Each structure stands twice: as structure tokens, then as C-alpha cells.
Amino acid sequence: MDLLLLTLKQIQISSLEYPWALLLLLALPVYMLIAYLGVKYVFYRVKLPSTHFIDQTGRFESFHPGMSLHSFKRRFLLRSCRFWAGIVSIVLFSAFYVCLTIALAHPYGGATNETLTEGIDIYFSLDMSASMKAYDYSLDEMQARYRLDVFTPNRFEVARKTILDFVDTRAKRCNHRESVTARCDRIGVAMFGQRAFIDVPLTRDYANLSSHLAKRRIDDIDASQSAIGDGILIAVASLRHSPAKSKNIILISDGDRKGGRVSIGQAIAAAKNYGIQIYPIMIGSGDNAVIAQSEMGGYTTFYEAQLPVNFELLNEIAAKTNGQAYKASTDAEFMSKLNDILEQLEPNISSEVEQDNLVDLSLHFVLLGFIFAFIASLVYMTAVRQYP
Question: How much is the mean pLDDT over the chain?
């Protein structure tokens, strides 16, 4: 029995190479009708030695005056074990025919495993404007670190590293499946500069997400503006059809809205319409920051610049979407704020179906078909056919 259940589990069809072969199944009803009439005709031709017979319950029946021959034969037929054995053999031969037809269509599939997962849907909307190249150190500190050849991440690199660390923690938690229900969050990434775009759609493929995000550079897009409204709206558009109870956008920016086709008010209205919460995180320590500029000969010079931030705007976005705004200047603070956000979110429990690599299932159906044919032949030879 276990072997049969395992076989049935393995023959879950995902696709057919020759689906037109299934047209052969149209002949199946014709076969079943002809076979049924044949069995019925054989039993109607049986010559009874007398007008008496005993039914299956042991009750004595007889052909009495006033009873039609057709009615008598019908009663005899419906109480005959041989007749019903013939019907069973027809059904089994039909199953044999169906299996061979499916085998001709070359089905492909594999075993599937259904697991319960709980999680939330999170979209990171990351600012890629020019101000994200700034360093949150004093001018003297930056020059000293440069002379000592100490790697110093700018705001964008701090944000990217923190997101990568966050994705890594999500991957470890999802793969750590000691409990019945695994915690697997879906994560997506949107980015915006002068324009906004979806960099990675919602996914649980954490390895691919990390690999893609690690290659992203701030100069990959036009960084002359900071279209925060566009960055929010494009993430809302991707989240709007999500079935999760908790749909969230983590907005990472260091400054005010500059440019873009969508206003902050329009983006907030769209988020509220779809029940999406926005959690802005302002990266940067203040209005003053250090900018690096490459010179000829491979030298780098640093200078202080005024890069005003607008935490009040981020706080307004959070308040109107039932979120909360945070400040962070280092990756440690950033990760701490992300953990604070996660504690407020309600996970959604859903079923996830995982499928193994597709394989040709034709042989499975051939073997299953011959099992049906063998049983059908056995039933017909022992319970239906009578020998002299």
C-alpha cells in the first residue's frame, strides 16, 4: 500500500509534451457502451435449467405467471455476481486505456511537498540619489581614514549592506524548519533616483535577491533627483495584489523629495487604499556630510556639503499610513530599526507547494496501466467467463 501511495504521489502531472494524444480518450465512451451491451447480451442468452433461482440473499425466486420475461431477466441480471464482475472488468480495462493514452502524451511532473509557511511581505524602497554618496563623518575623520586606507561605506553602501544582512537572517530563519510552520518572509526591492523601478520583485529566493543587490551601484541610474513619491508608488503597485495580512514598505532615504512625477500625497493615498504600511528610515546623521570627489591621477578629495534632510516629511508619511519613522546613521542602528519594525508586523500563514525537478512520467503510467489490465483480466477469467 505504501508503494502504491508513493507511486501516485510521483505521478502528479505538470505538463504534457503531446497534449493532442488525449483526443484518443474520445473513443473511451464508445468502448464502454459496446462492452456493457456485450456483457448484457451474453447474460440474456443464458438458458436457465428451470424457472427457479436463488438470489444473493438466499431468497428463493421463481418465474411466475404474469411476470414478463424481460422483467425476470432484469431481476436475474441485477442480482448476478458475474454480471457485476463484468462491469468491474470493463472499468479496469478503461483505466488501462486511459493510462496508455496519457503515456502517449508524454506527461512531465514530479513529487510535490506542501508546507505551511508564515511571513510578511516587505518592500524596500531605496533612495539612489546623489546625496546617498555622502559619508556621515567629519572632514578630518574622512581624510584620516583615507590616508590609513580604511574602507568607509557611504550612505548607500550602509543601506545596501544592512539590507543584505537582513536578507541573510531571513534566509536562515526560513531554512531553519524545526517547527511545523516555517517563517519565510517575501522581500522585494524598489529603487528610485530621478525615476523609480522595481529592482527585485517579491520573492523568497533570498540567494538570487542577495546576488542581484550586491551588484547594484549608485551610478546605475540617473541620481540627479530623489523621487520619493515615485519610489513609494511603484512598491505599492507591486504589493497591491498581495494576499498577505501584513503588507509593508520600508522607505530608506536621506533627504527631501526632489522631482518625480508622483507627489507624496498621491503615493500616501495609494498606500492607504491598499492597506499598506510605510516605515521610513532616514539614513544620515544630519544636514552636514562629506562628499568624495575623484581627481585626475587617481586621487580623491573630500569636502563638506550641505545635504538637508527632512525627517518631518518621513514622519508624516509614516503617520498617515499607520507606520513609524526612524533615524539611523550606521548599519548597527539600521539593523536595530529593522528588528523594531518586524516586531510590530503580523505574519500571514499560507501553504507553499514545492516541486522537484520535472521528469518524464510515461513509464509510470504504462506500469500503472498494465496493473489495471492484469487485474481486469484476472476478474474476467475467474468471475465472468465460464468454461465448458
Answer: 77
CA-to-CA distance for 246 and 240, rounded, in angstroms?
A: 11
Question: Quick one: 270 and 367 in the same domain?
Answer: no
Q: At what angle do helices 69-78 and 28-44 cross, to 10 degrees?
A: 120
Do 107 and 244 belong to one domain?
A: no
Q: How many residues does the chain have?
A: 388
Neighbouring residues of 322: CB distance < 8 A, sequence distance ≥ 6: 277
Where are any strands of DSSP class E within 29-127?
A: 52-54, 60-62, 107-109, 112-119, 121-127
Q: Which three cell numbers stand for residue 301?
A: 578629495
What's the one-letter identity of residue 84?
A: W
42 in helix, strand or coil?
helix
**Domains of the chain: total:** 2
Distances (CA, A) of 187 to 25, 168, 171, 176: 45, 11, 11, 18
Are both 375 and 320 inside the same structural domain? Answer: no
- Residue type (1 letter), 350: S
Calculate mean pLDDT across residues 73-89.
Answer: 63
**Pair (64, 104) in one structural domain:** yes
pTM of the model: 0.62
Q: Are residues 228 and 100 in the same domain?
A: no
Check whether residue 16 and residue 60 sit in a common domain.
yes
Domain identity same for 192 and 288: yes
In whole angstroms, what is the distance from residue 163 CA to residue 383 CA?
Answer: 71
Tell whether 123 and 97 lie within a shared domain.
Answer: no
Cα 344 to its chain centre, rounded Å, is 25
Q: Which of 324, 288, 332 is nearest to 308 (CA)?
A: 288
Taking the C-alpha atoms of residue 106 and residue 365, their distance in angstroms, rounded to an integer, is 9
Angle at 41 between CA 40 and CA 47, to 5 degrees: 105
pLDDT, tens digit (0-9, with 9 covering 90-100), for 221-279? 888 888 899 999 999 999 988 887 778 999 998 877 777 888 899 999 999 999 999 99
Taking phi over 0 as left and psi of -120 to 50 as alpha, with beta for the rest, 126 belongs to beta
DSSP 73: H
Domain span at residue 161 reads 115-353
Give mean pLDDT, residues 334-353: 71
